[in-house]
């Protein structure tokens, strides 16, 4: 092609004249093989971390679901229950303040019922369960919840219930006139531990309890601090524990060893004595709690309730004048018997308790005094009496300070047959 002037025209080549793009920023570094390997490892680590987190989350969720299911079944239940007559006898404990749910949990833990909820459902509206007393009960393992309710509601299935009357001593005692034997505290404990389990009778023997009373360390028997000295002074005589088990109603575990049974009773008794004000009163009277306990035991054995406070006053008056107490009850105590009129030979025996020959109080209490006798020991009636004697079989007791009058009162008692010896 030519232009108007006959010259050849040259068409512009647009491809050769295009402007090359200009780079912006620092020059790009060329990626190496190592860079690509690092990037690949990073991606694998991120995928691994994500998978691990997901796995942990799944485990946590499953755990929550499992525990929630267990909680739901244990607390609210699903109606699961045992069937049949059970497998074996077992003793369970109902604690002070236990709710029906708490009792059900104890039964579930001991494999008595399948679930606590089943027991709660079966016990709903049962007045006997609502009013159940703390203590020990015999039931069977793997029984229907309704059966467990029936057993706990039956008084015959309560075991380990101990009742100690006021004035009992540790050992059995025999009445000289009638030969009747009165169970001592050790025998009462032994009988309270008896329970039939799967057709076999199980009891803690009184001799085993006596052995523990003799040999166990006072601290292992929960002897209170205020009684440690007198208890240690008695050596291995089991009577060192006399008076430290208070009268009243107690619950004892029939399956516990002898030492634990004694420890439980002594500890609970010490608490009862303290709550009754024994320690505070002793301090106010400038006496030890053990001395007041001993005075209370003498009052319990020597008098009837209407004369408790007067007899306590006689004791303090005689001690204050350094007179021997001369109580027949202290003569009888180590002989394990009851007798109003002791013999000259008995009164002449040197024992740790005989107040005809021993000055002051006996070495230990001679029984477990009740609260009225203790109250009299803590607050004796005002008076100057030094002597007293029961003059008839109705229990009339005369008090005096005059010795000649006392001899006349004794003569009256003898005429009425009160002081006749059976030997």
UniProtKB/TrEMBL annotation:
The keyword DNA-binding belongs to this UniProt entry's keyword annotation:
no
Q: How does it sit in the membrane?
A: Single-pass membrane protein
The cellular location(s) given in this protein's UniProt record come to: Cell membrane
**Cellular compartments per GO CC:** plasma membrane
Q: What reaction is this protein's catalytic activity?
A: a peptidoglycan chain = a peptidoglycan chain with N-acetyl-1,6-anhydromuramyl-[peptide] at the reducing end + a peptidoglycan chain with N-acetylglucosamine at the non-reducing end
Record's compositionally biased regions (Basic and acidic residues):
1-20
Would I find Transcription among this entry's keywords?
Answer: no
Enumerate the GO terms in the molecular function aspect: lytic endotransglycosylase activity
Task: Report any one BP term from Gene Ontology.
Answer: peptidoglycan biosynthetic process
Write the signal peptide boundaries. Answer: none
The EC number(s) attached to this protein equal 4.2.2.29
Site label Important for catalytic activity, positions: 302
Stretches that traverse the bilayer: 48-68
Coiled-coil stretches, from where to where? none
Q: Where is this region: Disordered?
A: 1-38
Keywords on record: Cell membrane, Cell wall biogenesis/degradation, Lyase, Membrane, Transmembrane, Transmembrane helix
What does the sequence similarity comment in the record state about its family?
A: Belongs to the transglycosylase MltG family.
UniProt cross-references to HAMAP family, sorted A to Z: MltG
Protein function: Functions as a peptidoglycan terminase that cleaves nascent peptidoglycan strands endolytically to terminate their elongation.
Output this protein's name: Endolytic murein transglycosylase
User: What is the species listed in this Swiss-Prot or TrEMBL entry?
Assistant: Mycolicibacterium rhodesiae (strain NBB3)
Q: Which gene encodes it?
A: mltG
